[in-house]
Amino acid sequence: MRILGIESSCDETAAAVVEDGEIVLSSVVASQMTTHGKYGGVVPELASREHLRAIVPVVREALAQSGSGWNDLAAVAATVGPGLVGSLLVGLTYAKSLCFARGLPLIAVNHIEGHIHAVILEAKRDGTPVEFPALALVVSGGHTHLFEVQEGFRYGLLGKTRDDAAGEAFDKVAKLLGFSYPGGPIIDSLAPYGNPQAVRFTFAKMKGNALDFSFSGLKTAVLRWVEERNMESEIAARRALLRSRPSPSAEDWLAVTPPHTLDLLASFQQAVITELLRRAAASAERMEARSLIVSGGVACNTGLREAARTAGFLCPVHFPSPALSTDNAAMIAAAAFPKLARGEFASLDIAAQANLTLA
Q: Which residues contact 11 (CB under 8 A, 6 or more apart)?
């Protein structure tokens, strides 16, 4: 059984062919990082145009790499939401056209569920399957959610961010300090050179759900820290580096980043990781989770991976490989297999849903 997956929820045009829910035969991703990097974030209209350029060659390449013809496919799966509506429309509309022309069923997949299945796919393939009930921490530039995952892939929302997602906070802090976009990988590469205890950050206690997250206050605290110090020349030096060299290395950034800023980056990253794992631990204990899934783009963060490994969780902790942490179509195809088994097909008039929820 092979499913062609298509993902276009934000700024990555992706297609993949997955066999039997666990064998990735191909995974092709066309990145728009160069396009959006100069603006310090994703520009929705530009993202839609880039998807239009890339969608056909990306799908063709995924089929070619997998050695698949149209008759080899059991279905086409596409992200229906959440995401940027213009971006979603490109991938979903192309998937609909393929299904109409080839007589294939269409499976609509929630992007967040895809991130969860990226972990489940690799864990099954590696012989360490995820046990249920599982706790899923989905953390990326657009999402920070805690889900209870029950057998049969039934989801319950336990907590979510009330403002910025964790990955968004990383990118905004990096931009404030003159680093390039995306800022999360840069902060992660520089944090080991600083003292994570040097700058003390506190989180305000929120009313309501104690498992909800909030990172806007942390971002504002960094802004105040910067404003209290004369950092204009330092930030200008990093911006000049970025103009002269489109993709600076970690060594390049270190050369224009003094110790006090490295301490800030290390402390900021440590604060975010502590907040994520504190709520994950509380959720896992409350629901008596038998597995912890950490997925999404921030799952690439080496500091988070190491902290989760040593945090003393009473259940196994599963991370995806870096290639399946960020947006990709293999996770969309993987999430489609349980729906294929249940016969959950979408009609060709299904609409993209920018604010689609999972539970």
A: 31, 32, 33, 35, 36, 42, 47, 50, 87, 327
What is the spatial distance between Cα 62 and Cα 98, in angstroms, rounded to a whole number? 14
Report the relative pairing of strands 154-160 and 291-295 from DSSP bridges.
Answer: unpaired
Domains, in order of start, for the chain: 2-121+324-342 (3.30.420.40), 132-315 (3.30.420.40)
Q: Phi and psi at residue 14, in whole multiples of 5°?
A: -135, 145
Give the contacts of 82 (CB within 8 A, at least 6 positions apart).
9, 110, 111, 112, 142, 143, 353, 354, 355, 356, 357
Strand order in the sheet with 144-150: 154-160, 144-150, 134-139, 291-295, 317-318
Q: For the residues 266-295, what does the mean pLDDT come to?
A: 97
Q: Which amino acid is at 239?
A: R
* Least confident span in 196-205, 225-234, 268-277: 196-205
Contacts for 300-309 with beta carbons within 8 Å, 24 or more apart? 300/184, 300/185, 300/188, 300/325, 300/326, 301/184, 301/188, 301/269, 301/273, 302/188, 303/188, 303/191, 303/192, 303/269, 303/270, 303/273, 304/273, 304/276, 304/277, 307/273, 307/274, 307/277, 308/277
pTM for the predicted model, two decimal places: 0.94
Amino acid at 244: S
Tens-digit pLDDT profile for residues 56-73? 999 999 999 999 999 999
Q: Is residue 35 very low, low, confident or very high in pLDDT (cuts 50, 70, 90)?
A: confident
Q: Which of 40, 47, 46 is nearest to 242 (CA)?
A: 40
Count Cα atoms within 13 angstroms, Cβ side, for 157.
14
The 10s digit of each residue's pLDDT in 184-206 is 999 999 999 999 999 999 887 78
